[in-house]
Amino acid sequence: MKKFPEGFLWGGATAANQFEGGWNLGGKGWSVSDVARAHFDADVKDYNKHVSITTKDIEEGLAHPEDEVNYPKRHGSDFYHHYKEDIALMAEMGFKTYRMSIAWSRIFPNGDDLEPNEEGLKFYDDVFDELLKYGIEPLVTMSHYEPPLNLVLNYDGWYSREVIGFFTRFVETICTRYKNKVKYWLTFNEVDSMIRHPYTTGGLVEDRFEGKNFEEVIFQAMHHQFVASALATKICHEIVPDSKVGCMLTKLTYYPYTCKPEDVLAAQQKMRSTYAYSDTQVFGEYPAYLLSYFKNNNINIVKEADDDRIMKEYPVDFISFSYYMSSCEAADKTGLDVTPGNTILAVKNPYLETSQWGWQIDPLGLRISLVELYDRYRKPLFIVENGLGARDVLTEDKKVHDQYRIEYLKKHFECMLDAIVEDGVELMGYTSWACIDLISESTKQISKRYGYIYVDIDDYGNGTYNRYRKDSFYWYKKVIENNSVDF
Ligand code: BG6
What we know:
This is Family 1 glycosylhydrolase. By secondary structure, this protein is of the alpha/beta class. It contains 16 helices and 16 strands. The chain has a single domain, classed as Glycosidases (TIM Barrel, Alpha-Beta Barrel), CATH 3.20.20. Helix 4 runs parallel beside helix 6, helix 10 (about 215-240) packs across helix 13 and helix 14 (about 365-375) runs parallel beside helix 15 (about 405-420). The termini are close together.
């Protein structure tokens, strides 16, 4: 029987902006996600409709603070009031770790405040204490689509260099406060994602940059995030000496559509473009790919004298990533089917099945990704997001028979084992997205459910918020108990 390595960190993952709720309680300020409106009737292929936000959209959101129907992230799954029950359920499954994020605007409501909000700090103290009571190790994302809205409106988000200072103040505050409670940290969720959703990740609103090259704006903002991430790693290591700090990338995996060399080249270039950001965080310098891209597209990044040194001196300790799907790339895409995926629209792979939202299911792609990442970086890997978004049905006796999710996970776990045992990959752990149902980032629906635990609300926030164990809950518990998928 193949087993996972001893001490393997099994667990689950969530993010405050999608899960926590309590968006205006305990002194929390507005975050970018609190004004991100749902588009309930939009086509899933129209991802941009969900993510491009204008100044007018923000004003609209600010003008309707009472509206939690069209702004479902405001209520999330109400972890804010359910954290004890939720953590007890995680403990029942045997979680070794729980990945969560700290909402920046709960600690610094406006982002630029000089003093932190004690009530916010206390909330996470309580959460961490509860986790530690059960021996569950927190794995904390410092920023997961949660820049405070004030930084968008008064500083133009991460485009402003000043935001680096606000962020490092936040990092210093949380590292100091939780130094005896949190050892595993991630800096920015899907650091590459600013290119695909500049608002959620970078607080960038295109109509505020009239007359500027918006792509250059995005890369400038990204540069600030790279410097901030390196500084966060430095701060964290200084304050929490035994801490481990990781980067977090969206592991998009592209295959050549055919073996035509033109398609192979197209896929290789696509992969280089997806690795460019983690390359920067792991090797501490911009890769040749990005430098050529900047040059060829007349993108000029403004740097300060110390930036290159800072990025070089404080690379990450491990590489974490999300993996949901793979897709294809072709030199000529005319006539080829496209399919939506994790924040992308890509060429469909005729050999793969898809989820109800069109994401292509590819367990072997996870093994391929693990091998690629390990060979490239030679640092420990951590899968911090993976899972199946599906329409679950709660039966009258409050059960959810989600055999499809069990199958999906089992196949992925077998591929992880092969990568560890056959391919020699060093994998620290696995936290499935999302262990408890929460609001989807792309579609803002809770009916796109990922959890082992069902949360009884519908897309409009109607329901009891009661939690129910799905069939996958009992299955995952056994996986953790046996440290294996054979039992
Ligand atoms: C990742 C994000 O890209 O994918 C999560 O880090 C997100 O925040 C997850 O929820 C799944 O995507 P979606 O759109 O189905 O919620």
